Amino acid sequence: MASTSDIRKGLCIRYNDDIYKIIEFLHVKPGKGPAFVRTKLKSVTTGKVLENTFSAGHKIDDVRVETRSYQFLYADGETYHFMNTDDYNQIALQESALDTPDLLKEGEVVTILFNTEDAMPLSVDLPASVVLEITYTEPGVKGNTATNATKPAKVETGAEINVPLFLNEGDKIKVDTSSSSYVERVKE
């Protein structure tokens, strides 16, 4: 048993007869009244996201997890196939287990959380950032780069990301996987 002081991003808890992963949290201490923790929880079975508030000191039932490195092989519809980098065993997971499946490219190494009680995979954590190539974007207009203007760009995985105007097709960019946003251009 853990309490609200142990809440952190990525913690898996048992709540309402399901297992949820904490994707956001905020400790709030109002000027009047008791402190509380506002959380955003994602179900590892259905992918449904809900918001919940726990009062300070509330006991939560945390789930012990084990992390393993897996390499993404390919996607077959809504099923994603991964291979363990240590023993080469393969597993297939549903798209709902991934936070941002549109940023996952073949060969990418991810971390998969497993429940230690029944060895069931709970969720897939992508690296903090990935390097992707721009496959389509409108050309930038010369002289229009002084402002912080952005344009949509399609990357090799099919995701659409807003990028600065100076980027063109074929450029490689670093993308933050938690917010699906542009970080920087990558030089080769």
From TrEMBL:
The keyword Protein biosynthesis applies. SMART domains: EFP, Elong-fact-P_C. One of its GO terms (molecular function) is translation elongation factor activity. InterPro entries: Elong-fact-P_C (IPR015365), NA-bd_OB-fold (IPR012340), Rib_uL2_dom2 (IPR014722), Transl_elong_fac_P/YeiP (IPR020599), Transl_elong_KOW-like (IPR013185), Transl_elong_P/YeiP_cen (IPR001059), Transl_elong_P/YeiP_CS (IPR013852), Transl_elongation_fac_P (IPR011768). Keywords: Cytoplasm, Elongation factor, Protein biosynthesis. Its main location: cytoplasm. PROSITE patterns: EFP. Residues 67-122 form the Translation elongation factor P/YeiP central domain. It is found in: Cytoplasm. Pathway: Protein biosynthesis; polypeptide chain elongation. The keyword Cytoplasm applies. Residues 130-185 form the Elongation factor P C-terminal domain. Coiled coil: none annotated. It holds the Pfam family EFP. Gene3D superfamilies: 2.30.30.30, Nucleic acid-binding proteins (2.40.50.140). Involved in peptide bond synthesis. Stimulates efficient translation and peptide-bond synthesis on native or reconstituted 70S ribosomes in vitro. Probably functions indirectly by altering the affinity of the ribosome for aminoacyl-tRNA, thus increasing their reactivity as acceptors for peptidyl transferase. Belongs to the elongation factor P family. This is Elongation factor P. It comes from Pricia mediterranea.
